[in-house]
Amino acid sequence: MVWGGPQAHEGYRANAIFITWGDAYYIAHGCFLVVSVIVGNNRGVTAVKFHLNMNHVWLIKRLILLVGALSVFSILTSSRTQAMNTNIWRVQGDNTDGIDHSSWQVILDTYIEYKQDISNYPPVNLFCYRNVSKQDRLNLTAYLDYLQSIDPRNYPKTEQFAYWVNLYNALTVDLILKNYPIKSITKLGSLFSFGPWDETIAKVAGHALTLNDIEHHILRPIWQDPRIHYAVNCASFSCPNLSDKAYTAANAEALLEQGAHDYVNHPRGLNLRGNKLELSKIYKWYSDDFGDSEKEVIDHIIRYVNPVLRNRLKSFNGKINYRYDWRLNESKQP
Question: What are the residue ranges of helices labelled H in 240-280?
C-alpha cells in the first residue's frame, strides 16, 4: 500500500493502492462506521443512517476504497512469506548440463510478429495469441511443467538468470492464452487488483510463486541489473519487447543489450519532440534501478540511444512526462 507519494505507481506492475492523507481520514472514518454497525454502537448506526439519507456518494466511494485497501492488506500480510524471502534463491550449484529452452524457442519462432511503425525505428514484437494451436498450448504447458520440475539453485547464476526470465515470460503468455480474448492483462487478477501479478501462478522447488515474486524478489534483488526491465515482458504494448530468442546462459548479455537498444530507440520507450520529453513509466516506477535522479535515468538511456537522440538528450533540460499503454501486445494478423 502506498501513501500518496511519488512512489505510488501501477505496479509492482501496479498492485498498489494510491492513498492520500485525505483518503486516510475517510478510510478511518469508514472503519469507525462499519465497526460501529457491526458492534451495534448507536452513534455509529445513527451516523450511517444520516450519511445514507443525505445520499453522500463520497461515503460509498470511500467504503469501496476501504474494502480495496483491506484486500491489499490481507495480500501483503498473507502467509506467503517463504516465497518472498530472496535469500533462499541466492544459492547456486555447479550443474553444467544446461536447461532446455528449445520448446519455448519454437513457440517464439512461430507466433512472434514484427511491427515496423516507421522505418528508422526498431520493430515492436507482437504475439499472435489468436493463432496458437491446441498442440502448441499443450507444448507450452509441458515446457512450464518442465521448468517447475527443476530446482534452479542447482545451476550456475548465468543459467538461473535465463531460467527465471523465460519462466516469467512463458507464464505471462500462458496466462493470456488461458483468458484470451482480452484487451489488456490489467483486466486479469482478483476483484480489487490491477492485473494478475500477485496471483500465485507457479511452484518452484516447493515454493509457490507469483510473477511479482519472480521479478521483484528474485531477479531484481539478486542480479541488480536495470536491464532486467528490458527482459521480462508484461504482455502490453508499452512493455519492452518479448524477445524472439529464448534466454540462455550464453546469449543473455547480448539479449539484454538488444532489448535496451530496441526500447529506448522506439517512441514507446522515449519520445523527444522539441523540448518535450516523454518516457515510459517504467523509468518512473523503477527509477531507483536506473539511478537516483532523472538525470541518472537519462544517463542510462543515453548509453543505448542512437547518436542523434544522444546529442539532444545531453542538452535536454525540460520537464519529463511519463506514459504507458496497457493494451495487449497482440498481433492483428489473421
Answer: 252-264
Which grid cell sits at 306?
A: 542512437
Last residue of some domain: 216, 248, 264?
264
Which are the contacts of 61, defined by CB distance < 8 A and separation ≥ 6?
A: none
Distance CA 231, CA 214 (A): 12
| Predicted local confidence at residue 274, as pLDDT | 86
Q: Is 149 helix (H, G, I), strand (E, B) or coil?
A: coil
Q: Which of 202, 326, 318, 303 is nearest to 257 (CA)?
A: 303
Cell numbers placing 284: 518512473
pLDDT above 50: residue 306: yes
- pLDDT, the chain, mean: 83
**Overall average pLDDT of the 271-294 stretch:** 94
Q: What total number of domains does the chain contain?
A: 3
- Please tell me the distance from the alpha carbon of residue 177 to that of residue 102, in angstroms, as a whole number: 20
Is the confidence at residue 54, as pLDDT, over 80? no
Q: How many angstroms separate the CA atoms of 108 and 232, rounded? A: 14
* Domain encompassing residue 280: 270-323
